[in-house]
Every structure is written in C-alpha cells, then in structure tokens.
# Entry
Amino acid sequence: MIVRLVRASRLLEDTTSTALAKPIVLSSLKAIKTSVLCNVEARCRYRSAGVFSYLKDILDVILKGGEQEENDAEDKMLVEQVFTTLAAICLGDDLNALQVRKIEERV
# Structure
C-alpha cells in the first residue's frame, strides 16, 4: 500500500516539484522498514508488492539528481534508509536475499 501511494503521487518523477517530496519518500521507507520488522511472517510479500523496484527507483532518482549541495544531506539520509530497509527485508528471508542478488547481477 505504501509503495502504491508514493507511486500514485508521482513524487519519484520529479522530486523538486514539492518541498515535501523527499521527506515523504523518507517516511515511506521508514514505514516499510517498520512494517517488515513488526510483521516477520509477511516478509515474503514484499517481493510481489514491488518494494525492490521501488527501492531501485529511489536510488535512480538520487543518482540522476546530480551534485546539489542543498539536497546532499537529504540524499545521504535517503540512501542510508534504502539500504537499511533492504537489509531489514532480506533479514532471515533467503528468497528476498536471492532476489536482491539477482537484481544486483543485472545492474
């Protein structure tokens, strides 16, 4: 649900369109991480929910953003949250870890 809401808002298409774009994406990452830690049994559902592609899209947007000093701290925080969320999703779930490994090989 979280991924669908952010994708529906089209914040990842233009993060400069609103001042709240990056805080909303950051909040979505924290919500995903919290939900995966609180609901260990549902970790397998994150693959089918498109969370991995969502995380990749966030990293792509940050990399395309270039070197902007005013957004540098926000971007660093987003990258940190992406990787900690990814680690939480893969924690104890071999299929999620395998999926991430396969995505990494394609990139």
Notes: Residues 11 and 17 are 8 Å apart (CA to CA). The first helix runs from residue 2 to 9.
